[in-house]
């Protein structure tokens, strides 16, 4: 070792005192030999610290040599039967290939991916056989975020275990008839199997970090024992380009998430080509994670390299390993041993001499670390046992390992889903499958008898770890009572005369009521992204505390205030900072806790609706896939309610996004009693009934008097629309005004103008959910189409309006498309006019913004009068009089273009 250290010293620069250097190096070598690397590391850190404090300029490096982190002598060897495990992996590789190739020979457009599982089969095998626990009475079970494109390999394992049938395997990516297997991990489509969706890429590692933090949160609060559980997330090196993949690694280190392991499958390739052709992705990721405070373990070289590295006294091999870029490494594995000899070992004469006695086949068999079970087991064991930090395993593999010339280490490997007969035969031979030549054309699945020793071993290993994985719990075993609606009396009643509150304040009162509930109080999870004071929720800081695993190591500056900022090891609030994606990932962890932890939690994630929904749209879809249950609260919603903030603060489209998600129940309530009715219904459906839905509720900071709940309004509120007030019965002319959110109040004021100024009566309809009204109409429309001879159903909104008179005007604080959803279900021969806030937001007062977007009471009045004129019920001159009376500029540009 001293020769190697001398070589390193020589590379650094000329040595003015070689004898002194030798004494230092000999001392360090003695420490390494006699006391171990941990002691050596401690001494080196002390020396570096002293030098820096004395002013020495010592360069910092967050990377280490391009070799395995675990020295050969310290590797824990896999205790399993490696012969059985190798055969099992080979069978799984074959069955995964057969499933994808058979599907695409039958239907060439189905797609599928072979190469990702081919590269990480060893890792999944070691994990399933030796590390990952299923839920039992003594162990809550480990949580697995499986690399999305490797799903065929997981199906292949489940097939051998008897958990999937051959019929299901034959229906890979054919799900419509209910017999198939989903393309990627989808809990929505396979609710008893997959725990988490991991595609779109980048969401898996991000959600895994917050899932691990949520396990710590549950344990700290005494809700569930989670200290023996791990979260394992598998992702590709190309996937690490996604900002979400690395976006939260600082949180994981800061919160000391030693229950988290991220495994990066470094096969050096994306779909199109190399991940880092000119550099090294492993070194780059090591710097990212080590710099963030993670425990980093690199598994680069297989056992064949150990002897060569031991011979590398001068460090030449390590230097060449470091200087060789990933594009070259990819090329080596796409060629042969002779090519590797010439282009890798040929970079230095002493390296050629080192492998002179090795054949080209010997050189070709020098594997990467990710394909050796002992190297993988040793790394997994360190990850399992490491304390105080999250661990990342950077594992070097070959994309398409075992696929031969048809895909191994080639740029086309990711998309390879069709193999010709020769490639199939080559794979059969490489993995020693007992399939005769005359059957190869059929690509049969291979499954030995149940009493085959390998099969017995397969089941024994899972039995020892508590059962089969992945598996998912559909329902929580526990049941929790839901408070009756009258528990929220403080927001159901009308406000006293002279008092005004906002729907945001009503929501805070609902939360406060729930927190006092003896059963549900501890299960409420308030999630905030640095906007607590905006929403008037800062009172919760002192009341229930902000979760921080370190507690509060400082005295808060506002300690003398009633609502001071209080952090606590058992705090109930998850304060995510300025981080909508983090807030959503925490919400997902809590909203699926009934499944992952058998603990029903009630998450309320409150965010600026503009900043929140459009930023986390991909995660909302993932949450629906995971069958999440909880409340998303979009604060200061609508294009005109957040006065003074400007274009990128004002939301006119979050309800358009929400409408696209089938399990989302979206509401835009105007009044506090509507908020209470909706939330209580959500608790009933998600907790008592355990339905797989979640609620998106928009709330506003605009204060006004609250009318209170009238008997019988509950059903209409939940269905999405009800009559709020009726116009004069004596009027000859009548219109119907629909509104929601704060803009409903403009319809109420417009009803007064129509009556007082023009003698037109207006019935006013509150529509807390135009989206649910539209879904009901679409459902009736579909039923009528496929049941033409049966009694035709009448959409709910049609039944409400069909016996009314006059044109219908719908006005919202969102794009016109929001209210256009229900146009098809308007009664026949009735005018339907929609006003909305299409265009960019901007700063101004609420009154000016509503004038600018043409949704204030005057525009509602003019729209109603114009609709009456269109129906021939009044003269058009009346409309012109109204335009003049209310000072409307007819030449004003359309706000959509401004």
From TrEMBL:
Pfam hit, one? Transketolase_C_1
Q: Which UniProt keywords apply?
A: Magnesium, Metal-binding, Oxidoreductase, Pyruvate, Thiamine pyrophosphate
Enzyme class per UniProt: oxidoreductase
Question: Where on this chain does Mg(2+) bind?
Answer: 237, 267, 269
InterPro entries in the record: PDC_E1_N, PDH/Transketolase, PDH_E1, PDH_E1_M, PH_domain, THDP-binding, Transketo_C/PFOR_II, Transketolase-like_C_2
- Cofactor requirement: thiamine diphosphate; Mg(2+)
UniProt EC number: 1.2.4.1
Instruction: Quote the function comment for this protein.
Output: Component of the pyruvate dehydrogenase (PDH) complex, that catalyzes the overall conversion of pyruvate to acetyl-CoA and CO(2).
Q: What is this protein called?
A: Pyruvate dehydrogenase E1 component
């Amino acid at each position: 070792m001293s020769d190697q250290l001398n070589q390193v010293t020589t590379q650094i620069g000329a040595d003015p005192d070689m004898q002194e250097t030798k004494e230092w190096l000999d001392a360090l070598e003695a420490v390494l030999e006699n006391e171990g690397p941990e002691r050596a590391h401690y001494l080196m850190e002390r020396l570096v610290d002293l030098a820096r404090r004395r002013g020495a300029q010592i360069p910092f490096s967050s990377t280490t040599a391009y070799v395995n982190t675990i020295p050969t002598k310290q590797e824990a060897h896999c205790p399993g039967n490696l012969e059985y495990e190798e055969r099992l992996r080979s069978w799984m590789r074959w069955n995964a290939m057969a499933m994808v190739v058979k599907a695409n020979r039958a239907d060439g457009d189905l797609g599928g991916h072979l190469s990702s599982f081919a590269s990480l089969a060893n890792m999944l095998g070691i994990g399933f056989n030796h590390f990952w626990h299923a839920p039992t009475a003594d162990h809550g079970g480990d949580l697995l975020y499986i690399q999305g494109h490797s799903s065929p390999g997981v199906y292949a394992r489940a097939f051998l275990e008897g958990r999937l049938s051959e019929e299901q395997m034959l229906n890979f990516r054919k799900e419509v008839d209910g017999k198939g297997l989903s393309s990627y991990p989808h809990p929505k489509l396979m609710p008893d199997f997959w725990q988490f969706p991991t595609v779109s890429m980048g969401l898996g590692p991000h959600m895994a970090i917050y899932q691990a933090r949520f396990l710590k949160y549950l344990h700290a609060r005494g809700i569930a024992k989670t200290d023996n559980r791990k979260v394992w997330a598998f992702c590709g090196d190309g996937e690490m380009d996604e900002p979400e993949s690395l976006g939260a690694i600082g949180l994981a280190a800061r919160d000391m998430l030693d229950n988290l392991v991220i495994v990066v499958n470094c096969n050096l390739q994306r779909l199109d080509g190399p991940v880092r052709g000119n550099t090294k992705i492993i070194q780059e990721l090591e710097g990212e994670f080590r710099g963030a405070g993670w425990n980093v373990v690199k598994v680069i070289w297989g056992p064949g390299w150990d002897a060569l590295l031991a011979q590398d006294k001068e460090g030449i091999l390590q230097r060449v390993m470091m200087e060789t870029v990933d594009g070259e490494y990819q090329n080596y594995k796409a060629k042969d041993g002779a090519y590797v000899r010439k282009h890798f070992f040929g970079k230095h004469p002493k390296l050629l001499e080192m492998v002179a006695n090795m054949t080209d086949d010997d050189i070709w068999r020098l594997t990467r670390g990710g394909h050796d079970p002992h190297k993988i087991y040793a790394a997994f064991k360190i990850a399992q046992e490491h304390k105080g930090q999250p661990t990342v395993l950077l594992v070097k593999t070959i994309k398409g390992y075992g696929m031969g010339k048809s895909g191994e280490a080639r740029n086309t490997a990711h998309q390879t889903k069709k193999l010709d007969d020769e490639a199939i035969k080559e794979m059969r031979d490489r993995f020693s499958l007992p399939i005769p030549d005359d059957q190869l054309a059929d690509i049969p699945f291979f499954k030995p008898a149940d009493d085959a020793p390998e099969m017995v071993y397969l089941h024994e290993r899972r039995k020892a770890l508590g059962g089969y994985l992945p598996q998912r719990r559909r329902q929580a075993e526990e049941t929790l009572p839901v408070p009756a609606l009258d528990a929220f009396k403080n927001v159901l009643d009308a406000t006293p005369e002279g008092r005004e509150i906002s729907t945001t304040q009503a929501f805070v009162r609902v939360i406060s009521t729930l927190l006092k509930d003896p059963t549900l109080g501890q299960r409420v999870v308030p999630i905030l992204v640095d906007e607590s004071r905006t929403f008037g929720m800062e009172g919760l800081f002192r009341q229930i505390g902000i979760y921080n695993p370190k507690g509060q190591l400082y005295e808060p500056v506002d300690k003398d205030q009633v609502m001071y900022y209080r952090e606590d090891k058992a705090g109930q609030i998850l304060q995510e900072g300025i981080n909508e994606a983090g807030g959503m990932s925490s919400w997902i962890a809590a909203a699926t806790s009934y499944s992952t932890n058998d603990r029903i939690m009630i998450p309320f994630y409150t965010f600026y609706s503009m900043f929140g929904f459009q930023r986390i749209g991909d995660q909302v879809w993932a949450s629906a896939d995971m069958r999440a249950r909880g409340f998303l609260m979009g604060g200061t919603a609508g294009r005109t309610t957040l006065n003074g903030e400007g274009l990128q603060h004002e939301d006119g489209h979050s309800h358009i996004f929400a409408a696209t998600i089938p399990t989302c129940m979206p509401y835009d309530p105007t009044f506090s009693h509507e908020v209470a009715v909706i939330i209580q219904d959500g608790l009933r459906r998600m907790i008592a009934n355990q339905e797989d839905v979640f609620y998106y509720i928009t709330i506003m900071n605009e204060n006004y008097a609250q009318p209170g709940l009238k008997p019988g309004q509950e059903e209409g509120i939940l269905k999405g629309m009800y009559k709020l007030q009726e116009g004069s019965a004596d009027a000859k002319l009548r219109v119907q005004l629909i509104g929601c959110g704060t803009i409903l109040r403009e319809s109420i004021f417009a009803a007064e103008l129509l009556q007082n100024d023009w003698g037109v009566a207006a019935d006013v309809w509150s529509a807390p959910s135009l989206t649910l009204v539209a879904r009901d109409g679409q459902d009736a429309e579909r039923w009528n189409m496929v049941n033409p001879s049966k009694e035709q159903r009448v959409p709910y909104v049609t039944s409400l309006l069909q016996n009314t008179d006059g044109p219908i005007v719908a006005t919202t604080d969102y794009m016109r498309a929001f209210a256009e959803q229900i146009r098809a279900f308007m009664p026949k021969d009735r005018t339907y006019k929609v006003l909305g806030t299409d265009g960019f937001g901007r700063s101004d007062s609420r009154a000016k913004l509503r004038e600018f977007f043409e949704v204030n009471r005057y525009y509602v009045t003019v729209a109603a009068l114009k609709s009456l004129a269109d129906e021939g019920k009044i003269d058009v001159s009346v409309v012109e009089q109204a335009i003049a009376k209310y000072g409307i500029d007819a030449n004003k540009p359309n706000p959509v273009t401004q």
